[in-house]
Amino acid sequence: MPAETDVLHCLTAATGLYRGRGDGPESGPFLARMTVSTGVNGRAAILDYEATTDRDGLRHVEHSVLVLGAGGRLELHVASLELPGMVRFTQQTPGHFTAYEGPLVARIVLRTPRPGEINYAWWWSRDEGEPREQSRADLHRSG
């Protein structure tokens, strides 16, 4: 399996509910939950992600689709209330996706270090500087 498509193959082979904890300079501590399912006869991974805190309740929700793009690179199409519509992130190196379009200088790091584990991080910069990790969740498959 080529390294460029590892994360897609790992996710489509290990669908289900993932739970874990997250933290970061922007987010602070939170509980994370991600449901991974497949679409298009297993050629797409569908990721429904949410972050909650005891104090604020539901803090973040996103719906994403990971697919192999027409150019041969993995693409992560992300919709959330914080984004201006659906934003396409393209894999630059295995597990590192950068915004293809949009005003936000952003990166998503999506890794599957071991079967049943997902690391999911948002990187961004509020200025013209290089993006930094702002929020990261380490998730483990439930059941």
Description:
This protein has 143 residues and is mostly beta strands. The protein has a single domain, classed as Beta Barrel (Lipocalin), CATH 2.40.128. It has 1 helix and 10 strands; from the N terminus they run αββββββββββ. The protein has a 10-stranded antiparallel beta barrel. The chain is globular, with a radius of gyration of 14 Å. The two termini are 27 Å apart.
Give the proportion of residues in helices: under 10%
Query: CATH fold name, please?
Result: Lipocalin
Distance between the termini: 27 Å
Which blocks of ≥5 consecutive residues have pLDDT under 50?
none
Tally of strands? 10
Averaged pLDDT, please? 90
Which structural class do the helices and strands define? mainly beta
Number of domains: 1
Cα-based radius of gyration, to the nearest Å: 14 Å
Number of helices: 1
Largest sheet: 10 strands, antiparallel, barrel
CATH top level? Mainly Beta
Strand content: over 45%
Order of helices and strands: HEEEEEEEEEE
Proper CATH architecture = Beta Barrel
Shape: globular
Give the strand line-up of the largest sheet.
1-2-3-4-5-6-7-8-9-10
User: Can you tell me the CATH superfamily?
Assistant: Calycin beta-barrel core domain
Organism: Plantactinospora alkalitolerans
Protein name: DUF1579 domain-containing protein
